[in-house]
Amino acid sequence: MPFFSRLEPLMTSLLNGLLGALEKDEREVVSGDLLEAHESPSASVFQVLDLILRRQTIHWAGWRPWIVLTTVAIPLAVLLSQTAREFARWSAVYSWMLVNNTDATLLRNAGFWHGALEYSWTIGKFGIVLFCCSWACGRLIAQSSRKARLSVGMLFLITSFFVNIIGIPSHARASLAHTNDKYFPNGPVFALTFYRVWFPLIIYAITVLVPLFLGIIQTKTSVRRSKAFNLLSSSCTALVIVGLIDQPWLLIELWSWQIIPAHLVHLPYLLPFASIGPAFYLLIGLAKRWSTNSRAISVP
Predict the structure, then answer these.
(1) CA–CA gap between residue 153 and residue 189 (Å, rounded)
(2) How far, in Å, CA of 36 to CA of 30, rounded?
(3) What is the C-alpha separation between 292 and 165, in angstroms, rounded?
(4) CB neighbours (10 Å) of residue 179?
(5) How far, rounded to the nearest angstrom, does the alpha carbon of residue 244 sit from its chain's CA centroid?
(6) Rounded CA separation 265/252 (Å)
């Protein structure tokens, strides 16, 4: 049947991804068993998924996953998802101005194109910064939770998705703007369902969800690195966490609750600089994969 035949390539890709979550030795054994059993990709997916769930459940008998969940995964889930909400809030205004209010007269205006390029660069730049920082947080979760990284990642997903949908009530908005309207003063933008509902989810998926799980899956906890590399990697991750904490929106919220003094609201904004380390790591990884694929293609 056409529908089921189209599902086979998708299930094969999903099966390869699930097998990649297993340890190397176990992955080879499971792959061999599936080949001998001549199971369809769909049936194999459910078997491997059942195996992964049972393995992940066993790891939660120890203390490490619980510590990582409460001290790393949940705080990062709240920070990253709320950062994505803030990003979606102001980028939606720019997108609405460019997409929903453009006509033939504006398209012939040089000033319009200057503003369009400036707004696009601002949105794209912060999107890349958040993508790199989310990827670094995924590596941190994988390195901290080790064999329980998939289940910790799923709990991160549930927490961050809930925060992204509900959001954290803004005390600063109520005390400074004297309103509880989270869309003030951009009501016309968020009166549209796309910018109010779907746009934040798209931003969250692209800048938080995808890079975080890439970081979790790509991190090889069994590979030994040099002390210099581990020190550099730890420093980059620490800078990412500091950059997430010292964001202006979060500092203003903390000040509005009188948790920090007013002068700390004006701390240097470190998040763009914090993303440089993860960005270089990602670029090096992409270059290595491109080089490996090129050599594989050139070999007859």
Answers:
(1) 33
(2) 10
(3) 41
(4) 12
(5) 13
(6) 6
Number of alpha carbons in the 13 Å side-chain half-sphere of residue 117: 6
* 224-236: average pLDDT: 82
Lowest mean pLDDT among 3-7, 48-52, 191-195, 227-231: 3-7
| Lowest-confidence region among 150-159, 191-200, 227-236 | 227-236
Entry pTM: 0.83
